[in-house]
Amino acid sequence: SLNEILDLDKDGKKEVCVTYRAGKMMIFHEENGEVYGYEYAFRGMNPLYEDGTFRGSGGAAISYLYGNVSFSIDKYCSY
């Protein structure tokens, strides 16, 4: 599925991941009662696995990512 509910940052709370158009995904993350949205290139997070890890392309398929995501109020970071 292109829409998932997974714990991407291993904090015990699940994030909502929605692919809203070709190549674009929004991740919704709750922090202290506020919900934040983060846009992510779909190729950079495909596929999403049930344990919250993902595999993806860093750009032009020349580098590959594998890991989780960490969030702050204004950004996310893949690791």
Secondary structure layout plus pairing:
Blueprint: E1 3-6, E2 15-21, E3 24-31, E4 34-41, E5 54-57, E6 64-67, E7 69-71, E8 76-78
Antiparallel strand pairs: 1-2, 2-3, 3-4, 5-6, 7-8
Describe this structure in words.
By secondary structure, this protein is mainly β. 0% of the residues lie in helices and 52% in strands. It has no helices and 8 strands. The chain has strands spanning 3-6, 15-21, 24-31, 34-41, 54-57, 64-67, 69-71, 76-78. The strands form 3 sheets. Strands 1-2-3-4 form a 4-stranded antiparallel β-sheet, with no helix packed on it. Strands 5-6 form a two-stranded antiparallel ribbon. A two-stranded antiparallel sheet has the order 7-8. A hairpin with a 2-residue loop joins strand 2 (15-21) and strand 3. The protein is globular and about 35 Å long. The relative contact order is 0.20.
- Strand-residue proportion: over 45%
Number of strands: 8
Question: What structural category arises from helix and sheet content?
Answer: mainly beta
Report, as a whole number of angstroms, the end-to-end distance: 23 Å
Count of DSSP H/I helices:
0
**Rounded Rg:** 12 Å
Mean pLDDT: 78
Unreliable runs? none
Question: Which sequence of SSEs, written as H and E, runs from N to C?
Answer: EEEEEEEE
Helix fraction?
under 10%
Shape: globular
Strand arrangement in the largest pleated sheet: 1-2-3-4
Largest sheet: 4 strands, antiparallel
Keyphrases for this structure?
79 residues; mainly beta; two-stranded antiparallel sheet; 52% strand
